[in-house]
Amino acid sequence: MTERSQDDRVQDDRPQNEQPLPTTADALLARLQGMGVAYVEHRHAPLFTVEDSKQLRGELPGGHCKNLFLKDRKGQYWLVVALEDRPIDLKTLDKKIGAARLSFGSADRLWEVLGVRPGAVTPFSLINDTARQVKLVLDKGMLVHDPLNYHPLVNDRTIAVSPEGLLAFLRQTGHDPMILDLQE
């Protein structure tokens, strides 16, 4: 066995103890292409919050969304995807979606269940939920925007897809979304 020097190893931005993504952004994009889902990719500095996104996106057209990874008191995981400025009250959302007292899921659970890090949560992360542990809730109001903008598993890229393309992808992963008017 030949020992490799530090210079011969593949270098990336992950800390040495961090695991690689279960599905890479490029693998996700290949899957979308294979499904015939059109998208436009934008590369940018890493974004961690909606405010970061608002400051850096410029005139990027379409709907911009936030993604909330939640867990209820009974241990059910939820991914709620809504327009970025939509106020979400966890104290009333639980009744709308049939959950038992919601709270935010931890970064460790996010990684275990959806295979992404905070700041990169996206409906596309359901590609990694092969056990179908997560119930998906989509804001009805966001689906009128075309395109819709989401991170493709990493927060230094954004892809713009049609609502139809998003729904086709989600259904192919086995996640039939609950579509609700979250404005009420």
How would you sum up this structure, described in words?
It is a single chain. Strands 1, 2, 3, 4, 5, 6, 7 and 8 form an eight-stranded mixed sheet that branches. The protein has a single domain, classed as Alpha-Beta Complex (YbaK protein), CATH 3.90.960.10. It contains five helices and eight strands; from the N terminus they run αβαββαβαβββαβ. The chain has 184 residues and is of the alpha/beta class. The longest helix has 11 residues.
Question: What is Rg?
Answer: 17 Å
Q: What is the CATH domain class?
A: Alpha Beta
Count of discrete structural domains = 1
Overall SS class:
alpha/beta
Q: What is the N-to-C succession of helices and strands?
A: HEHEEHEHEEEHE
N- to C-terminal separation?
63 Å
- Total strands: 8
Strand content: 15-25%
Separate helix tally: 5
What is CATH's topology name?
Answer: YbaK protein
The description of the largest β-sheet is: 8 strands, mixed
What proportion of the residues is helical, as a percent range? 10-25%
Shape: globular
What's the CATH architecture name? Answer: Alpha-Beta Complex
Mean pLDDT: 86
Look at the structure and name the CATH superfamily: YbaK/aminoacyl-tRNA synthetase-associated domain
Poorly predicted ranges: 1-17
